[in-house]
Amino acid sequence: MNSPLARDVMFHLGPVAITETVVATWVIMALLVVGGYLATRRLQLLPSKQQAAFELIVVTVDAQITATMQVEPTPYRGLIGTLFVFIFVANWSTLVPGVEPPTAHIETDAALALLVFGAVIWFGVRAGGVGGYLATFASPSPIMIPLNFVESLTRTFSLLVRLFGNVMSGVFVIGIVLSLAGLLVPIPLMALDLLTGAVQAYIFAVLAMVFIAGGVAEAKPSSKISHERTTP
Amino acid sequence: MTIDWATLGLQTVNVLVLIWLLQRFFWRPLAQMIERRRQTAQMMLTEAEAKHAEAEAALTAIAATRAGFAAERDAILAAARTEAEHLRTAALATTAQEAATLQTEARAAIEREKSAIELAWAKRANLLAVEIAGRLAARLEGAAVRAAFLDFLCAEIKKMPEAARRAAAGAALEVISATKLDAGEEDHCRAAIGQAFGTGPVITFKQDPTLIAGLELHGPQLTLSNSWRADLARILAELGHE
């Protein structure tokens, strides 16, 4: 068994080493994009069962965004939904023999956390401008600026560590049990790992929504907030 | 444990690309379809509400129409009664007028018929009277009557204008009597007539029993009807004019 902490280079593109993690991510991306394209290729007003199932995913993501962020979900649907689906599929890719989840490697989790960090800044600036977003660091008083700055870094780091720790530990445990006990023994642990992977995808998406919503709400002028929240 | 920065960068780009691709091929089309379905459903609901409102309005209109049927029926019946009354009155008036006209015409016809009958009876009475008078006058024929008629004839001749009397005297004259005159009476007549004309015209004598009695003088330029027949004819004409 390879360690999830190890760096398995499959080939090189010039000076860049392409690892198994990147390749697995590309495969997952291809599956998701092709699947998404096939799913939406022939949409109809009267949906088939398959279309209804995909629409249910969209509606559920929208409902989660609306419930969590208290805003109209359209601008955030792509980011949040993709984060959830990608992490979910990546976590569950452990079902495929010989494949290690990309999220079991810290680079993938770091990339995801980095994107959330950037999304908080992006949506915060878009909601209140650069000044409005920077002003959120001085809330509730300027003395909180260092703490708020550190908080924005640590909560991003917590995202990274939480996802990485859970997935990586699951892979480790299954690998160790598999190497010690035999073929069928790790199955309950794998089921637990699947549950953990689904929960972690949900937690990651929810925390991303919370962080973005916090940045957006603080950066927005108060009148805008009240107006938006009173809109049905 | 170390972080492979190249992998971190690649994974960041990968996730960014995945976000863009899924947004392009999965999230947006499905969301648009959901929104389109929602709008369609909303439109159908709006149309259904509009049709429901139209149906409600139609039902209200039907109810109002039904409610108005009784009043409309009463109004129609009242109008029909009024119209019938007007027609009956007009028909009665027309009938009365026609009856009055017929009555007037009948009265006029009766009057005309009555007048015609009266006229016919008057004519018959006149004719009868003339005939009676003619028969009675026929019994008076005699020399004395002829002498009187001769005097009347001479008086008539003398009344004629001088020029006419001379012109008439220049032609042959014919004296017509009811009975044949004897020679003495003819001479007497010739003499009296000649005296009346002032000359001695040529006179012939002729008989005509229809004269009843009297002497008539006929010539190319004069006719003096001096007889009971002429008198009775004149009287009959005068009675007829009356």
Overview of this protein structure:
The complex is a heterodimer of chains A (232) and B (242). By secondary structure, chain A is mainly α. Chain A has one domain (9-230). Helix content of chain A is 73%, strand content 4%. Chain A has seven helices and two strands, in the order E-E-H-H-H-H-H-H-H. Chain A has helices at 20-39, 49-69, 74-92, 106-135, 145-181, 187-219, 222-230; strands at residues 9-13, 16-19. Chain A has a two-stranded antiparallel ribbon with strand order 1-2. In chain A, helix 4 (106-135) runs parallel beside helix 6 and helix 5 runs antiparallel to helix 6. The radius of gyration of chain A is 20 Å and the shape is globular. The N and C termini of chain A lie far apart (54 Å). Helices cover 78% and strands 7% of the residues of chain B. Chain B has a four-stranded mixed sheet with strand order 2-1-3-4, covered by helices on one side. In chain B, strand 3 (215-218) and strand 4 form a beta hairpin. Among the domains of chain B are: 78-139; 141-241, hypothetical protein PF0899 fold (2-Layer Sandwich). Chain B has five helices and four strands. Chain B is of the alpha+beta class and 242 residues long. The N and C termini of chain B lie far apart (167 Å). The A-B interface holds A 5, 7, 16-19, 21-22, 25-26, 29, 32-33, 36-37, 39-40, 43, 45, 47, 51, 54-55, 57-59, 61-62, 74, 77-79, 81-83, 85-86, 102, 105-108, 110-112, 114-115 and B 1-4, 6-12, 14-23, 25-31, 33-34, 36-37, 40.
